[in-house]
């Protein structure tokens, strides 16, 4: 049985991502684990009994579980309205580092789903945010859904490749996902006109992989890579952008300039990011 780990902070943005996750679960025949991380709890020293919590962890955990159960019940009601939805929804609360906890849980899940606070999903990768920390530590793909996105099961997905070896594993995952969700998958590579390619082996291997599956990769030349990607998404009605996250190598290449942050702030496209230690299981 497949399992989706859905991160929540009980905000409206998280609820938006939860609803999208429920639709995915119905198509993938997957269960959902709603996960909430407790905030950092400061400690003080006692003269006799050692360290004491300034707030009771029991109360905080009880409050977290109460909120999780409430959101789970709302999702179950929504599930009843979705044809073919038989999703089991579990609740789990934890503490400590969210990114580290997600990494530890990655062996039992197939995908992490989380909401974006504002702007585009990719914008969170640029700000050193918790989203970026989760992606860096997770071993499974991370689905980031922008707050303003009207997200449904995607009909058009684009995978932006840099011809890395990790892109092949990501493609395997995406092809399995495309079969389950019935979306069209485009593969593109964006390069600058004056870019000098010193090693063509990775590109040849990647294109052979695609050819054996009846696929091809479109090369787009642009002086400014990020607007070119944004334009492609807009012109082709792309609803989901996928890419690998090799310690920011490709993401930095696409979005490394500070002016790009302002450009993509309004881009409402969900992102599926494959982490550095991606372990396929879908």
TrEMBL record:
Database matches in Gene3D superfamilies: HUPs
Domain UspA: 1-146
InterPro entries named in the record: Rossmann-like_a/b/a_fold, Universal_stress_UspA, UspA
Family: Belongs to the universal stress protein A family.
Alphabetical list of PANTHER family matching this protein: STRESS RESPONSE PROTEIN NHAX (PTHR46268), UNIVERSAL STRESS PROTEIN UP12 (PTHR46268:SF6)
The protein, known as: Universal stress protein
């Amino acid at each position: 049985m497949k399992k989706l780990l859905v991160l929540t902070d009980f905000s409206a943005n998280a609820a938006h991502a939860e609803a999208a996750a429920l639709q995915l679960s119905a198509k993938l025949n997957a269960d959902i684990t709603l996960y909430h991380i407790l905030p950092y709890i400061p400690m003080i020293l006692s003269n006799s009994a050692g360290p004491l919590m300034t707030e009771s962890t029991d109360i905080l955990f009880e409050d977290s579980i109460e909120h999780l159960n409430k959101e789970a019940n709302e999702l179950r009601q929504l599930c009843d309205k979705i044809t073919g939805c038989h999703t089991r929804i579990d609740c789990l609360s934890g503490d400590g580092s969210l990114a580290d906890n997600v990494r530890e849980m990655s062996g039992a899940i197939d995908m992490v789903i989380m909401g974006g606070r504002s702007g585009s999903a990719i914008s969170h990768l640029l700000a050193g945010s918790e989203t970026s920390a989760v992606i860096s530590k997770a071993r499974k793909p991370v689905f980031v859904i922008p707050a303003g996105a009207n997200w449904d099961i995607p009909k058009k997905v684009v995978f932006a490749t840099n011809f890395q070896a990790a892109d092949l594993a990501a493609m395997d995952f995406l092809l399995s996902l495309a079969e389950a969700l019935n979306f069209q998958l485009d593969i593109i590579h964006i390069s600058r006109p004056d870019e000098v390619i010193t090693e063509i082996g990775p590109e040849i291997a990647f294109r052979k992989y695609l050819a054996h599956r009846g696929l091809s990769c479109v090369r787009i030349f642009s002086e400014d890579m990020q607007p070119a990607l944004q334009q492609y998404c807009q012109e082709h009605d792309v609803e989901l952008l996928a890419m690998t996250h090799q310690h920011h190598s490709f993401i930095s290449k696409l979005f490394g300039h500070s002016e790009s942050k302002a450009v993509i702030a309004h881009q409402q496209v969900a992102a599926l990011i494959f982490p550095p230690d991606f372990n396929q299981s879908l």
